Amino acid sequence: MNMRPDPATNYPGRTYRFYTGPTVFPFGHGLSCSQFKHHLHQAPKFVSIPLEEKHTCRSTKCKSIDVVEQSCSNLGFNIHLRVKNVGKISGSHTVFLFTSPPSVHNSPKKHLLGFEKVYLTPKREGIVKFNVDVCKHLSVHDGLGNRKVALGPHVLHIGDLKHSLTVRI
């Protein structure tokens, strides 16, 4: 079964990554008996990918860069998030980090980058950290199956929070 979208046949793709209809319950909803609030403590607004001086993307408008490029290795950043238990009982909370990449190469609408679990008593806060590898987590597959880092605006989603992040050269 083909899970990827196919523009030639107008096939939208399967799985949550390509779903555009109304959401009944978001992914992970109801995993805790308490209530939690998120606050973004640290996250970059821009990530720059260093390229060689003679790289073709320096002279033309590229929508993506091959992941195999050496300039892409070991390129990452951290996201720190404050999570507060605003409920009346202690509980564990699973924090999901999603991204919505720019619309290139039939990219998914949204996909899961990672998750962390935190246990908090009522009215207590904790810090959750995510380490994001640009080439691994912010890449998409082109029509031939090659991994590409999509340049342009990405949106990070954590619960109801949204954070814009621009990948540039």
TrEMBL record:
Pfam families: Fn3-like. SMART domains: Fn3_like. GO terms for molecular function: alpha-L-arabinofuranosidase activity; xylan 1,4-beta-xylosidase activity. One of its GO terms (biological process) is arabinan catabolic process. GO terms for cellular component: apoplast. InterPro entries: BXL, Fn3-like, Ig-like_fold. Residues 93-162 form the Fibronectin type III-like domain. This is Fibronectin type III-like domain-containing protein.
